[in-house]
Amino acid sequence: MEIDTPVAGRALVVIVDDRTAHGDTVDSTGPLVTELLNEAGFIVDATVLVSADEVEIRNALNTAVIGGVDLVISVGGTGVSPRDVTPDATADVLDRELLGISEALRTSGLAAGSLDAGLSRGLAGVSGSTLVVNIAGSRAAVRDGMATLTPLAAHVIDQLSGMLD
User: Fold this and answer.
1) What Rg value do the Cα atoms of the chain yield, rounded?
2) Where are the alpha helices (DSSP H) in 40-98?
3) For strand 96-97 and strand 124-127, is the pairing parallel, antiparallel, or unpaired?
4) Residue 70, burial from CB neighbour count under 10 angstroms (0-12, 13-18, 19+)
5) Less crowded by CB within 10 Å, the N or C end of the chain?
6) 122-139 pLDDT, tens per residue?
7) Strand 9-16's sheet: what is its strand order?
């Protein structure tokens, strides 16, 4: 007998990487994030590949919010190089920032030995009724970040939907 796992929400994954967006490399991060989201009870509507361009990133995030997903996770472009503009684009989309989530992602990433996660400028916050989170692009940062994020995301989504008061 199969037991249905309750659905935590709908999600969309945005991969920010110039080479992947232009078809020069195969996306290996999107499938990992999708698998981890599925394991946590999320239904992933799609994975979108964009270049490290503020307008492209902002458009992808806004499309996810308008599309009504509960959670949008962007992966990549959170570091300190000039092409790392994901947090800058995300700031324009957020109504309210959730500093605790972004700090938890950095702290757990550093504790797990992921320098990319620890140095990430990634943001987390709410846009409309959608939780928007930036995660560093390394596989280690993704694995650790998703383990930290998914229980927090489910709680925030419950609050946004009025299930928790």
Assistant:
1) 15
2) 54-66, 86-91
3) antiparallel
4) buried
5) N
6) 999 999 999 999 999 999
7) 42-50, 9-16, 71-75, 130-135, 124-127, 96-97
For the residues of 115-137, what is the DSSP string, one character each?
A: HHHHT----EEEETTEEEEEE-S
The tens digit of pLDDT for each residue in 43-100 reads 999 999 999 999 999 999 999 999 999 999 999 999 999 999 999 999 999 999 999 9
3-state secondary structure (DSSP) of residue 101 = helix
Element (H, E) at 103: helix 99-111
10 bridge partner residues: 43
Please tell me the predicted confidence (pLDDT) of residue 160.
Answer: 93
Question: pLDDT averaged over the chain?
Answer: 94
- The span from the CA of 101 to the CA of 123, in Å, is 8
With CA atoms as reference, report the closest residue to 62 among 12, 137, 10, 18: 12
Decide if pLDDT at 164 tops 80. Answer: no
Give Cα separations from 5 to 2, 43, 80, 119 (angstroms).
Answer: 9, 11, 39, 35
Q: What does the block give as tokens for 118? A: 């620890």
